[in-house]
């Protein structure tokens, strides 16, 4: 278990470093994103969709505020097109992250955990709990990207990975986009309350999962 936690911690730290880099350099702020979307909306919804897709895809490489971007896609595009744009970006990020990690992740895994026995134990544990980890990964930032890379590194079957990824992403995105679509600058409460509720529900789901797994098998 320690080996798996070590892998998760190191990967999370790497993604967190990109977030801090973006934060302190001011390269990608919420104000900038809103400005891009406002300008794009004056041209065509296609440009807005493209920006949303690219930003959500970029989350694979640099930590971006996924929930905020998803809510904004609903605000600027409406529910239907907002969902389409957000799910496209998130799905592309998941698939590319999985494939890159599957191709190059084994060497990284060996570097992080040199001991083969511990490495095999970490792979086994992820295979046991990885589906649930991906399913509940949106409880906190960075965890979706980490779970995606772990799925590829540990050679999880693609069908299993994409099933968990979509089961996690679709309800999350649908709710967040809807909140954005019914929010306004004068009344941002639906978006704010939805963001809080999603986090609480996912954290509670993690708690329930942990409690169930703690129970001894009789």
Description:
The protein has nine helices and no strands. It is an all-alpha fold. The longest helix is centred in the middle third of the chain and has 34 residues, at 79-112. The chain is globular. It starts with a helix and ends with a helix. The model has no long low-confidence stretch (mean pLDDT 84). This is TVP38/TMEM64 family membrane protein. Belongs to the TVP38/TMEM64 family. Pfam families: VTT_dom.
Characteristic key phrases:
mainly alpha, 9 helices, transmembrane, transmembrane helix, TVP38/TMEM64 family membrane protein, TMEM64, VTT_dom
Q: Topology, pairings included?
A:
Elements: H1 2-25, H2 30-43, H3 45-58, H4 66-77, H5 79-112, H6 116-135, H7 143-153, H8 158-181, H9 189-214
Q: How does the overall form come out from the CA principal axes? A: globular
Give the SSE order as H and E letters: HHHHHHHHH
Sequence stretches where pLDDT stays below 50 over 5 or more residues:
none
Task: Give the % helix.
Answer: over 70%
Membrane topology: Multi-pass membrane protein
Transmembrane segments: 6-25, 46-72, 78-100, 161-179, 191-209
Family: Belongs to the TVP38/TMEM64 family.
InterPro entries: TMEM64, VTT_dom
């Amino acid at each position: 278990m320690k080996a798996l936690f070590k892998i998760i911690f190191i990967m999370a730290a790497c993604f967190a470093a990109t977030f801090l880099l973006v934060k302190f350099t001011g390269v990608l702020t919420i104000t900038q994103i809103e400005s891009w979307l406002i300008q794009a909306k004056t041209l065509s919804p296609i440009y807005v969709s493209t920006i949303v897709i690219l930003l959500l895809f970029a989350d694979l490489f640099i930590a971006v505020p996924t929930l905020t971007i998803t809510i904004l896609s609903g605000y600027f595009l409406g529910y239907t097109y907002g969902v389409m744009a957000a799910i496209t970006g998130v799905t592309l990020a998941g698939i590319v992250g999985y494939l890159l990690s599957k191709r190059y992740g084994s060497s990284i895994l060996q570097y992080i955990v040199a001991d083969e026995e511990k490495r095999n134990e970490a792979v086994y544990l992820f295979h046991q709990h990885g589906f649930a980890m991906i399913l509940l990964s949106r409880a906190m930032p960075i965890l979706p990207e980490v779970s995606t890379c772990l799925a590829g590194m540990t050679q999880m079957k693609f069908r299993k990975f994409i099933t968990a990824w979509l089961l996690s992403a679709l309800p999350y995105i649908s709710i967040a986009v809807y909140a954005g679509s019914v929010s306004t600058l004068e009344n941002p409460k639906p978006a704010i309350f939805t963001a809080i509720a999603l986090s609480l529900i996912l954290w509670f789901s993690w708690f329930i999962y942990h409690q169930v797994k703690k129970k001894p098998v009789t």
